[in-house]
Amino acid sequence: MGDQVEMGDAVSAAPVDELMHGAAAAGGGSNDAFAAVEGNGNGNGHVSEAMEGQVQEQAAEEQPPVVDLEALTPEEERLWNVVKEDAADFNSWTSLIQEAEKLEVLSKVEKTYDAFLAEFPLCYGYWKKYADHELKLGSSEKVVDVYERAVKAVTYSVDMWMNYCTYAMEKFEDPEAIRGLFERGISFVGTDYLSHLLWDKYLEFEHMRSEWSRVAQIYTRILQVPLQQLDRYHASFRHFAYSHPLTELMTDEESEASKAAAAPKDSPPGDQEITTVPETDGVTEPAKPAEVTLEPSGTEDLEKYVAVREEFYKTSKEWDAKIRDFEIAIRRPYFHVRPLDDAQLGNWHKYLDFIEKEGGIEKTIKLYERCLIACANYSEYWVRYVHRMDEEGKIESALDALHRASSTFVKRRPEIHLFAARYQEQLADIKGARASYEVLSNSLAPGLLEAIVKHANFEKRQGNGDTACSLFESALELGKIKEDSRARAVLYIQYARFLDQVLKSPEKARKVYSTALDSLPSSKTLLEASHHPGISEVEYVNSLVDKAIAPSKIEGSSVLSAADREELSIIRLEFVDSFGSVEDVKKSEARHVEYFPPPKSTVESKKRPSLDNSVPDRAKVHKPYVGATATAPVTGPPAYSGQTQWNTFAPQAGYAQQSQGWQQPPIQQPTPPVQSQQWNQGYAAHQGGYAGYGGYTSYGPPQQQAPVPQQPPYGGYGQGYPQEVNGWSSGGW
Q1: CA–CA dist 492, 710 (Å, integer)
Q2: pLDDT band at 595, cuts 50/70/90?
Q3: pLDDT grade, residue 283 (50/70/90)?
Q4: What's the confidence (pLDDT) of residue 552?
Q5: According to its UniProt record, which protein family does this protein belong to (predicted)?
Q6: Under DSSP, is residue 532 helix (H, G, I), strand (E, B) or coil?
Q7: What is the mean pLDDT of the chain?
Q8: Alpha helices of 336-464 — where are they, by DSSP H?
Q9: Which of 43-57, 171-185, 610-624, 664-678 is modeled with the greatest confidence?
Q10: Rounded distance, CA 234 to CA 59, Å?
């Protein structure tokens, strides 16, 4: 039927071409006739023109309009432009599909569905619609091709397999081919809690063929699976079993085995062997059902046959009691672009915890695959799956999951590419790791601080120090960095500390700080960060602070607030008190009083109590003209060990040990925006293998590029600086 439709389309299109060709031929004949008339000398020019006009008019009336079926309508063109601009715009995609379906042009339908399903491959309903259009407008071969692509894209969808098998039951002629398709589907989704849809179709197929032994086998397998409708199947099986003789329920192999076992008459009934089905997660193969090796006759034998299945049912009910609450909490087992609520996200994590502990590897893999249909837009579950497969030694499965995540499902999420780069590096896939970093820097998130720093550290580990430096320098030239002074300050700090503590080049670090301060002379963050071992000379610090706290406006830059300038001056007092001479302390205090004079009298001070509230807390601790505080011995800088110490604004240990001196004031933590998927952060706290990446889902709702608070995966960078960047370092702009 599908082939006939396709041929009909070809035939219906042919007359248009034939008429166009015939009209051209007729026109040629008319011209020849006109030439003959004129050549005979009997023609009249006016008559000839009139005849020619009539012929042309007649040809115009006979020739049908040329319709380009491939041409886009204005609405199609508009929608294609929208989805090309934003491929994650689900609503525009569905509008485009509706527009293509109206015209019933197969090539347009195919092009639209192919593009849409490449972006959203888990939408099983659209795969079904695609197959239906191929059935209506295309051929049966194309229908099968669409279904095969569908079960490859969404392998663990019960609905997808059920739709495919339903089509096969209607269109396939070979029962073995249909049965083989059912077995393929059962091997993937037969243990799904809601797989009764597929099991029902399989039973229906065998019932239609009156294959009673096969029906009995299917019931036997179902009773070993804790399905939602297990009780219904149990009751149905009992009715079926007591409605047929045992000889119809047993397969030929079972009957032969029963006869062979019944041959020796010496064995007492109690010694008769009962063989059960090996545990294979219930459905991985059409294993032989449990066999009662008795002569297949009589009510007693049937009761024993049923009793074995009753034990299967009992065992399945025990497991059902353990997982029922988890399954009930899954309110949306299918894929959708809308975010899941925290309760469902948390339930998936707890369910995975349980199955990993008690279910075995096969059940674990299948639950992960089910989870990654509903939670496909959440990086945390992909990361968790990769880690789990890696722990099980299934590296190929881990890489397959990572590829699906980074190339399709969460390909716009920076955190998955950062994770991919780190994981690939651990597997010694240096080329792959570098490619993951380049995706971030070249297209997905250019200017993302975490990506820049980690990429530089990666290149340093490969022995490419110059390349690492060039990454920082290139990032500083990005327009996004230049437009955000705080982001630029943070990047300068990262670069300088990388030079000083990783590459051991304090002079280069000092030059970077000098360049940074010339560019951002009023950056308090930059001024504070520039005080570290290797760049700690008192005169140098004095010159930096004097520039910053001078009350005159600095052209081209924003001026620090009075409170910030006074705080910097107090920090300078603490620093000089620790590292300077008496004369240095005297000069610094004099400068402080010059810029920030104390109240003129105690009485005036009492009349203006609010002034003290405007002074930073540090000013209440360290007042000028108070004797120098005792200081702890100054120690050297801490050794660099990985990525755990140098990324914060807080000075190094030598400064932090002082009782009142040179300590970074606590950074005010901004209140993060409420987002729909924060549950994972609590979960990450007790998942050591991937705790660092667990926090990445605070990047925002799926399919949106919301600001991303940077987290320190694998014990990564400290978190002193992200709050200073006002959202930029969080992955968003």
Answers
A1: 18
A2: confident
A3: low
A4: 62
A5: Belongs to the PRP39 family.
A6: strand
A7: 74
A8: 342-358, 360-374, 379-391, 395-404, 414-426, 430-439, 449-461
A9: 171-185
A10: 75
Residue range 72-258+297-312, CATH number: 1.25.40.10
Res. 328: pLDDT tops 70: yes
The answer to whether 570 touches 618, Cβ cutoff 8 Å, is yes
Provide, rounded to the nearest whole percent, the portion of the chain with pLDDT above 70. 64
> Are the C-beta atoms of residues 44 and 12 closer than 8 Å to each other?
no
Give the side-chain half-sphere CA count within 13 A for 604.
4
Query: How many Å apart are CA 629 and CA 627, to the nearest integer?
Result: 6
Residue whose entry in the numeric block shows the structure tokens 């014990």 = 715
What are the sequence ranges of the domains in the chain? 72-258+297-312
CA 115, 118, 120, 122 torsion-angle sign: positive
**Local structure of 674: helix, strand or coil:** coil
Q: Give the single-character DSSP code of 646.
A: T
User: What pLDDT sits at residue 532?
Assistant: 53
For residue 488, what is the enclosing H or E element? helix 485-497
What would the 3-class secondary structure string for 539-560 be?
HHHHHHHHHHHCCCCCCCCCCC
> 376 in helix, strand or coil?
coil
Q: What φ, ψ does residue 535 adopt, rounded to 5°?
A: -140, 55
Hey, is 292 helix, strand or coil?
strand
d(CA 9, CA 69): 12
Answer whether 0.70 is exceeded by the pTM.
Answer: no
Specify the higher pLDDT residue, 58 or 546: 546
Q: Dihedral of the CA atoms 625, 630, 636, 638 (nearest 10)?
A: -100
Helices (H) and strands (E) in the chain, counts: 36, 2
Residues 457-466: what's their mean pLDDT?
92
**Confidence tier at 158 by pLDDT (50, 70, 90):** very high
10 Å CB burial of residue 479 (0-12, 13-18, 19+) is: exposed
Q: What b/e sequence results for 345-362 when a residue is b if at least 16 CB atoms lie within 10 Å of its CB, and e otherwise?
A: bbbbbebbeebbeebeee
Q: How far apart are CA 299 and CA 415, in angstroms?
A: 64
